[in-house]
User: Fold DUF418 domain-containing protein from Nannocystis punicea.
Amino acid sequence: MSVFPADSPEAPPLAARALAPDLARGVMLLVIALAHARVLSGPDTGPTDQAVAALHTAFVDGRGYPMFAALFGYGMAQLLARHVRAGADWLAARERLRRRGRWLLVFGFGHALLLFHGDILGAYGLLSVLLIAALRSPDRSLLAAAGAWFVAGALAFGGAARLIPAGADAESLPGPLLSAAFRVLGWLATTPLFAVMAAGPFLVGIWAARRRLLERPEQHLPALRRTALAGIAVAVVGALPLVAVHAGRWGDGAAPQIAATALHTLTGYAGGFGYAALVALAAARLGERRGLVVTALVACGQRSLSCYLAQSLAWQLLFEPYWAGLGGQFRPLTAAAAGFGVWALTVVLADLARRRGRQGPAEALLRRALHGPARSE
Assistant:
């Protein structure tokens, strides 16, 4: 199982899957949608706009991807265990996982080329290829390496954010070919950066999978409560300096921006873990109960690759000047509402696919790429 599950013939039947991982993916795709919907937002011109932007910085920006990266590591550890139970040795299992990583790189390149500049699939592919040995690392080494990657990711993004020129978006490029070239060049630059930023959560996800924190949340309630409370609180406090920079209250020099962005990124890791713990607590409380909303969210999580790409299709149609051309045209609150609407639409479509007994089209394509036509049935 990967962060985009149901692409492996060894995956358990959907009815047998643990609730928390799929529910977390479905819910956290909302955070991704709200983050990406910022491409529609113009300048913050009034108190309401600034308040919405501050909430966005504290609760959305840099808070969703750590959780997805952790889920990716969690799923990689589960898939390795499944391969071993099926009789594969370490070398065979490692090659299968690396092959999956190479295909994620291909999917990520295609995603950037055709749809959206903010691809994360390529970063996951790099992690699958380069950090595969971490699946066999001792817990202490795993967590020590994760801590080092947290610092590296925060510093890297802090510096990179200062180097990105203002208005560096495809909205200034009038044609689809120029826009695609812009996205591909951006992908080549940001994929290694995103991999560095995601490496720490990826390793923590492997550690969490060894303890089955998400499959058996009822056995870890005190730890999950502490993680949810402390993680989200740390993320909010860590966002305050960047809120001040954006509001022009802490200068506009390089040092304040780099420091505030690095702190925001570092504390965002805690926020992502806090969100994951909060969803796990909800799953434990729900138990075997399923309503229409939970069922639809789980369906979205089970088809998260397709839903993620569907969001990008929506941003392409709404944002690019040769389509709707709405980039920078909305107030922040309206942009957030558009993000919620796009996410809600993907949830509905995923539930319709569930009712018809179908996996997501992107999941089906990835499975076919990995295993061929005979094993994609």
In short: Confidence is low (pLDDT under 50) at residues 1-15. The CA atoms of residues 10 and 218 lie 26 Å apart. The longest helix spans residues 176-211.
